[in-house]
Amino acid sequence: MHQPKPTTLAEVFVPASVLLQRLHDEAPADHFTLGWLMSRMHKRSFGLIMLLLAVVAVAPGVSIVAGLLLMIPAFQMILGQNMPVFPRRIAARPLPTRHLAALVQRAVPVLRFLEKLIHPRWPTPIDATKRLVGAVVVLLNITLLFTPVPLSNVVPALVIALMSLAYLEEDGLLLSIALLASVIVLAVELTAVWETILGAKWIFGLWY
Q1: CB of 132 closer than 8 Å to CB of 181
Q2: Nearest CA among 48, 54, 56 for reference residue 22
Q3: Which of 78, 113, 117, 157 is buried deepest, with most CB atoms within 10 A?
Q4: How many CB atoms sit inside 10 A of residue 132's CB?
């Protein structure tokens, strides 16, 4: 009689809150490295890194730096890489474990609350989804960095955070909503840029 193939550990979905708690429990006592963190997250590292950077990008003072850093994993997703790759000097730089512990202690309760509503559903093709998310993040980052409107970084950053959370939790329904929101944001931002250009031309025309 044919026996069903057992489910491997890699095929079992682990919620992001559980994964972060494991990172906290398994982290070295004093210092950890970004390379260690990426190796422990495996395919989930893209979603986590983008989520963290998107949250940082909401703040006006550091939005440009966070937006530029977001381009790195986004382009790597478009290229189909398995996980983010950083320069060796950055990946091997020791970071205090207490910072990771503080982050996990704040993030895990929030994720546990969100995971009551956000969970794996509406499965999508892995490679195609990764490339699509990367491409949309690049477009949103362009508007975040170059739209000449005060606080214009906030909405794109929040949409990127929503998309990253959906990708991290493998929630196809939430990802579809985030992609729809991305289309709306891109349309509004492009309209604002076009109106700014037209206004500048009108003002310029008054002088000549």
Answers
A1: no
A2: 48
A3: 157
A4: 18
Sequence length of the chain is 208
Of 10, 12, 34, give the one whose Cα is nearest residue 23. Answer: 34
Query: End-to-end distance of the chain based on CA atoms, in angstroms?
Result: 88
Identify the pLDDT of residue 148: 57
**What are the angstrom distances between the C-alpha of 56 and each of 65, 66, 167, 193?**
9, 6, 18, 24
Collapsing DSSP to helix, strand or coil, 169 comes out as coil
Per-residue pLDDT tens digits for 68-85: 888 988 999 999 888 888
pLDDT at residue 61 in the model: 72
CA count, 13 A, side-chain hemisphere, 118: 26
DSSP code at position 120: S
| 163: nearest Cα among 142, 141, 189 | 141
Residue 5 DSSP one-character state: P
DSSP codes joined into one string, 19-86: HHHHHHHHS-SSEEEHHHHHHHHGGGHHHHHHHHHHHHHTSGGGHHHHHHHHHHHHHHHHTT-SS---
Question: Which residues are paired to 92 by β-bridges?
Answer: none
Amino acid at 88: R
| Residues 28-79: tens digit of each pLDDT | 888 888 788 877 777 788 888 888 888 888 877 778 888 888 898 899 999 9
Q: Which residues are within 8 A (CB) of 194 and not within 5 positions of it... i.e. 6 or more apart?
A: none
